[in-house]
Amino acid sequence: MKITxxxxxxxxxxxxxxxxLTVSVTGIQIVAEYFNTKNHINSELLTLEKTISxxxxxxxxxxxxxxxxxxxxxxxxxxxxxGITVTDEANNIITQLGxxxxxxxxxxxxxxxxxxxxxxxxxxxxxxxGHSFPLIFEFSGRTTSVGRVTxxxxxxxxxxxxxxxxxxxxxxxIVKTAFLVFLFTLxxxxxxxxxxxxxxxxxxxxxxxxxxxxxxxxxxxxxxxxNVLGDAYNNLIDELVDYKxxxxxSEQETNLANERLDEQNIQLEQEVAKKTSSLSNTMLKMEVQxxxxxxxxxxxxxENIRRSKTEQTLLTTNTELKNSILELNKAKERxxxxxxxxxxxxxxxxxxxxxxxxxxxxxxxxxxxxxxxAQLQEGLNQKKISKQAIDKFISNANQSTxxxxxxxxxxxxxxxxxxxxxxxxxxxxxxxxxxxKYLDEIIHSLHPKLKQTSHCIKVHCDESIEIYSHPGAIAxxxxxxxINSITHGFEGINRxxxxxxxxxxxxxxxxxxxxxGHGISPKALEHLFDPFYTTKAEKxxxxxxxxxxxxxxxxxxxxxxxxxxEKEQGLSYHIIIPDMRS
Length: 582
Fold this sequence. Notes:
alpha+beta, Beta-Lactamase, 4 domains, five-stranded antiparallel beta sheet, five-stranded mixed beta sheet, 12 strands
């Protein structure tokens, strides 16, 4: 039989563990160095963004392609930059130098990124990584995205920077491992292998006839596990001597016990005969009980079959119910979307009608100005123009221009407000919102509906409050609440008032919406947010307005909404919306 050395086996396991640990630590250090260098390169790319974004934005805005190409060529000349891509707001490439990520991957990154913010780009299969950021142009207090820039670097840049460090780490690990192998081999040989060989040789010389002469003598003067093993062996020899003496006495006692055992066997045979007779009677009784159990078992099987059929029927019914619930949920979602688009369509129609008035006035002013210019031209041609006629023309032209400018500005403001609110309602994007300004835009977009009444809306909101959330959901909530108050709460009331109080605490936006309308009954309040519950069914009400509001607050904004009202005391909503940055 082949003998395996304990010291060699132990040494192999220790060194194998140390080798694996060394390789793992070295690998982790290399990976850490790689990611640290990569983060440093990303920081340099961010610095380049701050340096070039202004000039590139100006070049793209002014359609100065040559300037954009010159800037790109200067950046590609930097060793760290392996490629640059500049696109316009429609994702059309203006310039692309060096390495590039495929358009499909670039488009996916741009769609999934957060609007208005820079984002990281990585392509493991192509060995590229980099940084993408939008080009934002500010004009008249408004920001417009005019394009996007993608700066690319590669793993080769990282490896060129950390090459020396990798060689140092690997060399250091090899030297430490070799030195440790030498020390462990020397220590195991002196402290374990040689003493074990001596101990084995002494144990092989044991004499069972004379155990006292086979005791081990001390192999060294250190008190270690081998000395403990030797002492244990010597104690075993002493116990063996004692057991030999006790064994002789036990043999005598065993002989006496065997004689007694023979007598007991005879008595036991007699007792067994009696028990066998009794057992036969018991077996007959058990057979009768077994027949009864079999009959009962058959009954249970039949009952089990009936229950299985019933369970199958219930499962089939449950599946049909689940399918019905899914169809109902889909129908509910389609109704909610239709109600949302109907609200937006109504707002669009009213905005279009409202814009007709300032545009009509502008057309009239422009026509009058053209007629005045024609009269002035005719007078000049006939050389019958006077200073009084020129002064009159200048006065009329100024009045027409002021009227034209005011009405066009009014139409522009209406279109801008409606555009912001409408785009937000048809988009699921999350962005930073200035709450006070956004509420003004929402109310401004409702001006065509509000001007048909004498109702007023008062907003109490600090202009510094900002929240990171879904603007479309907030707009839909406020529009539905305001229209509900006008349609239901102020029915028969000439001068209704709506108060909107907003404050921001503990990363949450608190909005209190109150009107002084008719209010609703306690029974109606219980079903206020239920779908299809309406008190105006005969007038075309769908009962989805407040249900949409509840869904938007709870599901889309992860917030809460509570309503309170008393008859003829108005209706109040308390809405809490968390900031999605927290």
